[in-house]
Automatic annotation (TrEMBL):
Belongs to the PEP-utilizing enzyme family. PROSITE patterns: PEP_ENZYMES_2 (PS00742), PEP_ENZYMES_PHOS_SITE (PS00370). Keywords: ATP-binding, Kinase, Magnesium, Metal-binding, Nucleotide-binding, Pyruvate, Transferase. Residues 546-896 form the PEP-utilising enzyme C-terminal domain. The keyword Nucleotide-binding applies. This is Pyruvate, phosphate dikinase. It is an enzyme of class 2 (transferase). InterPro entries: ATP_grasp_subdomain_1, PEP-util_enz_mobile_dom, PEP_util_AS, PEP_util_C, PEP_util_CS, Phosphohistidine_dom_sf, PPDK_AMP/ATP-bd, Pyruvate_phosphate_dikinase.
Length: 898
């Protein structure tokens, strides 16, 4: 089998469909080469070789690929008319990593490889450009030193050892820019770089090009298992056995002088999705100079340049002279680039992110890939490409990444207010959204103001509660994977992390940025989508399901075959979800209603009652409250099905545990404190989640089921009188045996019939059950003979199938995931392999006795893309998820059906 694939000279062994084998970069280099885009010739060592390297080690792998690599180098030499290692006419190459998905900055690249003390002289002579040759040499040592020889900063406080030398020399010479170095300076740098490598690592810098090449190839393979890459993989759930490919490619030089340069560009705006070609470039520069910001990069288009100058407050004459666009400076190169961006976007039928280099007036393309973009840009680009006729409806839907829609569902700043706002500083956009509040510096003070922004140097697990209370989180330290960032994303809370310009003084309770000082209680605003920290109170607006977002959603509904309902416990949630397109409610948890202040009292009286009579008395007080709640929810969901679950949690959760509250309760109920204490103790359970809960409550205290049924049916009848149609579905929780279900169903139906007689009116309703105990899934055929519908409660089903207590799993799940014992948290992503079998069995057996049985899911998984897809494949009628996940589930339902 081939381990090395060549490309260049308008030919290629591979193509863009071979990303798994050649990596994204290699596959696209091959593709570009075959469609006639000018790509420097090169070759790709496959991802499979990376896996072989991990198993066999360096020497064995070199033996495996040596011949193919030699032949491929020879074909590069033939195209370029140069020779690897030749002192007069040298070929230099880049060695670039490239996994099947882009992992920006996670792995390493070495440029100008093949350079040594003799080659540098030959190159200088051949090009008649000494500065260029020595600049290339110093760059090579710098990159090879870092990537292959492990020259890294020695401690957190240190900077890169090579950068340190550069900075010192600049200072000594009194210059600002790397382009100002003289030939002598560059020679000094080469000498000093080698010297520091010798001192730190005890190594003589390798001068043999082949030794350099193998060193760099192995270093790229090693970077696949470097800390950064491993973490990135675990975050995104990419398996370790994918491996990375290695691309070896002839160098083209952007650092040959003022007729050369390098840049990056996008076929559309990655932030807004606007269809404008844009990007940045630098004259006389190489590699990542643009991205690394060694100098202020210039804009590609004139329009972009003018927009930029406006923001930077630069006069037009100054701009045109000192920061001209590529369009103005090198019009013919710009025209050519513009043509390629157009060709590539049409070819890949998606927004492209490209790298290019201009060598002495000739343009080369070095990379293209489907560009990363914000949620807003993603949606706009998909719809625009559809309208432009470049893609069809199904392809447009597939261009939208479900989880990224989340960004569009958080409150957003009013664009007008944003224009007027003053930026304090910039951090990392760790969790999207818009937050406004008063500064607090301590988590336990987050509740001090109605709206607070928690400002910390960094956060720790103790801050959790405060983070939850605060409207937004801002940290001076930490990256996109810091505690603050991870937790905030989990909470769906706006967060900016790593805003290095902030000086936080906990003692004085101040936040200082340059000259400005802010105090506790001052208003600030966070734009979590951009990382901008803004002064004062910037107005926000609720996100709207409008424009391209609305268009994508209605397109989704056109293709989706499965419905999306919502989990909602209040009329407010129901309304939000309906605006997001929910087609009913899949779960209303009645217990949440009992926790409100005036109700908890009646609830406690009910629980503490010693006699059936006492309990019924208390339930009578609860009835009107429940009934009006249901009326509100039914009204918000007019015309759509609403599933209401009967009381589920163990009663112990409702009783007071503090002495003072127990006393109050005793007084109010005219019983002794001791009686209250006894009852509380009596309700205590060893395993509450496996204890007296669910239908076990309704079966031991039938009067609770009676009251709840009455509240539901009466609410429905009341609305009917007002001409509002509602479709209640009464759901019995935690059923494990057929008898358990039958006993509850009997109570529900007889209560309903009683009310129908009382009111001389009827309403249609269904009675069904949750399938959340493994036994219920196995007995589904029998249960379905009675039940009108099933709803898989995958939270409990996961808990009981794994035997992991959800409330205790925090102690070991993170460790399991870290050690790879579990790939993901099964409470977040449905375990299709195991728990999924029970879902499948339950559905199949249920429908074996009742073919038209309605089946849905109401666990947290109902809004998680891979789980939603699974539900569709199992044949469910609907998924139900929290209101803000509804659009995501609608999209996935469509994608699954395509
Ligand atoms: P990353 O994946 O981190 O972007 P790349 O392999 O794309 O790393 O390379 C880093 C930089 O070096 C890019 O700016 C790229 O354009 C540039 N580069 C890579 N190979 C060459 C080459 N053969 N000639 C000139 N520049 C190159
Ligand atoms: Mg990089
Ligand atoms: Mg790149």
């Amino acid at each position: 089998k081939a381990r090395v694939f060549s490309f260049g000279d308008k030919k290629a062994d591979g193509n863009s469909s071979m990303k798994n084998l050649l990596g994204g970069k290699g596959a696209n280099l091959a593709e570009m080469s075959s469609i006639g885009i000018p790509v420097p010739p090169g070759f790709t060592i496959t991802t499979e070789v990376c896996t072989e390297y991990n198993a066999l080690g360096r020497e064995a792998v070199i033996d495996l690929i040596k011949e193919e690599v030699k032949a491929s180098i020879a074909s590069i030499e033939a195209v370029m008319g140069t020779e690897f290692g030749n002192k007069k006419n040298p070929l230099l190459v880049s060695v670039r990593s490239g996994a099947r998905v882009s992992m920006p900055g996670m792995m390493d690249t070495v440029l100008n490889l093949g350079m040594n003390d003799e080659v540098v002289l030959g190159l200088a002579k051949k090009t008649k450009n000494e500065a260029f040759a020595w600049d290339s040499y110093r760059r090579f040592i710098q990159m090879y030193g870092g990537v292959v020889l492990g020259m890294k900063p020695e401690s957190k406080e240190d900077i890169d050892p090579f950068e340190e030398i550069i900075e010192n020399l600049k200072e000594k010479r009194g210059i600002q820019l790397d382009t100002e170095f003289s030939v002598q300076d560059l020679q000094d740098l080469v000498f000093d770089f080698k010297d520091v490598i010798r001192k730190r690592k005890g190594l003589i810098f390798p001068s043999d090009p082949w030794e350099q090449l193998w060193g760099a190839v192995m270093a790229v393979f090693n970077s696949w298992n470097g800390d950064r890459a491993v973490y990135y993989r675990s975050m995104n759930g990419y398996p370790a056995d994918w491996g990375t490919a290695v691309n070896v490619q002839a160098m083209v030089y952007g650092n040959m002088g003022n007729n050369s340069g390098t840049g990056v560009c996008f076929t559309r705006d990655a932030g807004t999705g606007e269809n404008v070609f844009n990007g940045e470039y630098l004259i006389n520069a190489q590699g990542e100079d643009v991205v690394a910001g060694v100098r202020t990069p210039q804009q590609i288009t004139k329009l972009g340049s003018q927009r930029w100058a406006e923001l930077a407050k630069i006069e037009e004459t100054d701009r045109a002279e000192n920061y001209p666009s590529l369009e103005e400076l090198m019009p013919s190169i710009f025209e050519e680039l513009n043509e390629y961006q157009d060709i590539l976007e049409k070819h890949y039928r998606d927004m492209q992110d490209m790298e290019f280099t201009i060598q002495d007036g000739k343009l080369w393309i070095l990379q293209t890939r489907n560009g990363k973009r914000t949620g807003a840009a993603m949606v706009k680009i998909a719809m625009d490409l559809l309208k432009e006729g470049m893609i069809n409806e199904k392809e447009a839907l597939l261009l939208v990444e479900p989880n990224k829609l989340d960004e569009l569902l958080h409150p957003v700043f009013d664009p007008q207010a944003l224009k007027r706002a003053t930026t304090i500083a910039q951090g990392l956009p760790a969790s999207p959204g818009a937050a406004t509040g008063k500064i607090v510096f301590f988590a336990d003070e987050a509740g001090k103001y109605k709206n607070s922004i928690l400002v910390r140097i960094e956060t720790s697990p103790e801050d959790l509660e405060g983070m939850n209370i605060a409207k937004g989180i801002l940290t001076a330290r930490g990256g996109m994977t810091s505690h603050a960032a991870v937790v905030a994303r989990g909470m769906g809370k706006c967060c900016i992390s790593g805003a290095g310009a902030l000086k936080i003084n906990y003692k004085k309770r101040t936040l200082t940025v340059g000259e400005h000082e802010y105090h506790e209680g001052d208003w600030i605003s966070l734009n979590g989508s951009t990382g901008n920290i803004l002064e004062g109170k910037v107005a926000t607006i609720e996100p709207e399901l409008s424009g391209e977002f609305a268009e994508i959603m209605s397109l989704s509904d056109k293709y989706a075959k499965m419905k999306v309902r919502t989990n909602a416990d209040s009329p407010k949630d129901a309304k939000v979800a309906r605006n997001f397109g929910a087609q009913g409610i899949g779960l209303t948890r009645t217990e949440h209603m009992f926790f409100e202040l005036d109700r908890i009292k009646a609830m406690r009286e009910m629980i503490l009652a010693d006699t059936v009579k006492g309990r019924k008395q208390a339930l009578e007080d609860l009835l009107p409250m429940q009934r009006s709640d249901f009326e509100g929810i039914f009204e918000a969901m007019e015309g759509l099905a609403v599933t209401i679950r009967l009381l589920d949690p163990p009663l112990h959760e409702f009783v007071p545990h503090q002495l003072a509250t127990q006393k109050d309760l005793a007084d109010e109920m005219h019983i002794s404190l001791q009686a209250v204490k006894n009852k509380v103790a009596e309700l205590e359970e060893f395993n509450p989640m496996l204890g007296h809960r669910g239908c076990r409550l309704g079966n031991t205290y039938p009067e609770i089921t009676e009251m709840q049924t009455r509240a539901i049916i009466e609410a429905a009848l009341n609305l009917k009188e007002r001409g509002i149609i509602c479709k209640p579905e009464i759901m019995i929780p935690l059923v494990g045996t057929v008898k358990e279900y039958e006993a509850q169903e009997t109570i529900v139906r007889s209560t309903a019939n009683l009310i129908f007689e009382e009111r001389n009116d009827t309403v249609e309703y269904l009675v069904g059950t949750m399938i959340e105990i493994p036994r219920a899934a196995l007995m589904a055929d029998k249960i379905a003979e009675k039940a009108d519908f099933f709803s898989f409660g995958t939270n409990d089903l996961t808990q009981m199938t794994f035997g992991y207590s959800r409330d205790d799993a925090g102690k070991f799940l993170p460790i399991y995931i870290e050690k790879g014992i579990l790939k993901v948290d099964p409470f977040e992503v449905l375990d299709q392999e195991g728990v999924g079998q029970l879902v499948k069995i339950g559905t199949e057996r249920g429908r074996s006795t009742k073919p038209n049985l309605k089946v849905g899911i109401c666990g947290e998984h109902g809004g998680e893309p891979s789980s939603v897809e699974f539900c569709y494949n199992v044949g469910m009628d609907y998924v139900s998820c929290s209101p803000y996940r509804v659009p995501i589930a609608r999209l996935v339902a469509a994608q699954a059906a395509i």
